[in-house]
Amino acid sequence: MKYDNQIKQWLKENRARGARLLQILVRENSTRGNESSTQALVIEKCRQLGLALDIWEIGGAELKNHPAYCCDRKSFDGNPNLVAVLKGTGGGKSIILNGHIDVVPVGDESSWKHDPFSGMIECGKLYGRGATDMKGGNVALLMAIESLIANGIKLKGDVIFQSVIEEESGGAGTLAAVLRGYHADGAIIPEPTNMKLFPKQQGSMWFRITITGKAAHGGTRYEGVSAIEKSLFVIQRLQQLEKDRNEKITDPLFEKFPIPIPINIGKITSGEWPSSVPDTAIIEGRMGVSPEETIQAAQHEMESCLRELNEGDEWLRENPLNLEWFGGMWLPGSLGSDHPLMNELTNSFIEVKGAPPIVEASPWGTDGGILSTVGNTPVVVFGPGITETAHDANEHINLEDLFAASEIIALTLLKWCEVDE
Amino acid sequence: MKYDNQIKQWLKENRARGARLLQILVRENSTRGNESSTQALVIEKCRQLGLALDIWEIGGAELKNHPAYCCDRKSFDGNPNLVAVLKGTGGGKSIILNGHIDVVPVGDESSWKHDPFSGMIECGKLYGRGATDMKGGNVALLMAIESLIANGIKLKGDVIFQSVIEEESGGAGTLAAVLRGYHADGAIIPEPTNMKLFPKQQGSMWFRITITGKAAHGGTRYEGVSAIEKSLFVIQRLQQLEKDRNEKITDPLFEKFPIPIPINIGKITSGEWPSSVPDTAIIEGRMGVSPEETIQAAQHEMESCLRELNEGDEWLRENPLNLEWFGGMWLPGSLGSDHPLMNELTNSFIEVKGAPPIVEASPWGTDGGILSTVGNTPVVVFGPGITETAHDANEHINLEDLFAASEIIALTLLKWCEVDE
Predict the structure, then answer these.
(1) pLDDT band for position B65 (50/70/90)?
(2) Which of A209, A225, A242, A265 to mutate to test the interface with B (most CBs of B within 10 A)?
(3) Which of A148, A197, A210, A213 is the most exposed place for a label (fewest CB within 10 A)?
(4) Peptidase M20 dimerisation domain: from which residue to which, for each copy (chains A, B) (predicted)?
(5) In the CATH hierarchy, which fold is given to the domain comprising A204-330?
């Protein structure tokens, strides 16, 4: 508790600098393939803080052949990953502070009140793509680190700050950092959780099912086999699978979620002509994965399900459903609610906010799945961003929350990594 | 019976000329908007036969405002309709011989064995787009008329030959001919019926249903309303409607058809992203119409059905299904199997083929619906083309059937219109 007030005081006095840092990060568009200019600002910030920099362009066979690698990006050239380490004096627990620098596209620009890259501040909210997801979280981390350095506090354990690319597209940046050897005794990822603590995260992956029918004229449609009618059976079976899978989820962290691990049918296309029987249908969707199961186990359940459909239907026996796992894949993550990192974060939260945090499981995947599953690093997802505005028009963050999160994280570092007196 | 053998003999001797006429018609591509060059060949043939020609470009307010007008074509300029009349001496029954000159596109050219416009003859079959649907039928008509003229036979009733555009797109050509004043005591349309007699024809029309949902992230899909899930309800309700409508069909002419008047769901598109809840779905299809009901009555049934769905669902009450009737519409047609025209055609058929014809209802619409419903002209659809090859690659016709149909039609004309001795 010795340094807590010092840290709090410093962070209070430096709010304007924190807001300014977020503003300059938001003003750079860092969509996929364009991360370099924002990353350069983060690198310069870390250099000024005197951190040990490791800057590299990800890639190579080890990464691309890894089972958790899920990425259709052709080249990472020119858009590096960054790891910046505040080396400890030894003996304390280490921590990874991980944030992604990539943002999703702005979408329909006409839905935005301001320029999506304005970084405009209005009534305590900072607006712009990435403000909430998750440059605001990244600034909370950097301000927490700076508060230690500025106050001359030395920690025993290493603080490993990671500014990674590719989170929005499946986590190749964090996977590359894990494969480069970075792991720690704990990790915090300040994704936009509305200040909730997420020790568990739903994983997910995308699937595509192709259904084959037989074309015919609509006036004699019984001479064909409608790929749309067969799709109905498939969708109904997937609805049943979703029901069965969710009935098994009893974790109280999920109790507020009507469907803890949804199977979302996001897209269907079939047919070209109103008066023809369609001979092909394509369904695409997202399958949620429980924190307590593996991607493989979940895939296996859907595969069995479709195999049953194929076996039970005369037409499908000859013209089987085709299942592909494509595009995004996010590993689930699971940490016990009584893990020491949860305890430290909770205590710091109470110290700053005066009440205990809400603890839940996240309804979406983060890089936490890779950090914990591949990197063997216990992860808590906790951040100041507003879940609802992520990926949406008029994305914004409450600066008050950013500063509170920064305090909570700084206080946690003091205890987790231990101060070297 | 006096002239029958003379006619049969002449048609037998002039088979090569008939095949040659079909060949030159097939060699001209007469897809929508390109009918003029083929129509020019038909006009010249009718001029040579000494028929009274009426050639005009369709259009005008009366046509376009008619409730049976269903056409999205911008211009008919340069692609005329033709009516060519063999004037009777008076006192006999008149007849319309109606054939359309437009053909559907060739589709995937690589699926054709020969050039789609080759008109190649192989083993008694003439190949090419339009050979069966329905230039072959048109040639059967023209050869029947020529056989009368060549043998100096005068009929009492008028023979009104019509070569119309736009059948494949909803019948604006035949509607224009009806509105120009052409009607008769009977009509034959030699669409490809496999030599069956169709006194009744299924009508049809296209519909589009737009379903509105509410977008959300797939990981919290319960926060949205899936337009795909709502589509499932709609499709299931339409399946029930199809069942209910078909249970009412007891006409023996339909007994071979598993579903006499199908509701075909030809197309569905919904969603843009696997991990989003889709907020819009569009279903397009074709609704079959019974020969004994009107287009309006059938539309009303579907409208009631969707209204029920809207009223019974909380979401749809606020976000109702939107139904449009768009694109094609083909009126149904119904003639009693004991109509005198059916009797004459049947007798002629037996005389030529030695056995009675198969009598059925057609599973698709023709211009017969407009001729009978709007033009008050009793219609039988009967022709030499092969139903299965219409609209398909390698479309072809058996020339033997073409000549037989021509004989049957010529003999029918002798009796229907009566010979003026």
Answers:
(1) very high
(2) A265
(3) A210
(4) 201-312
(5) Alpha-Beta Plaits (3.30.70)
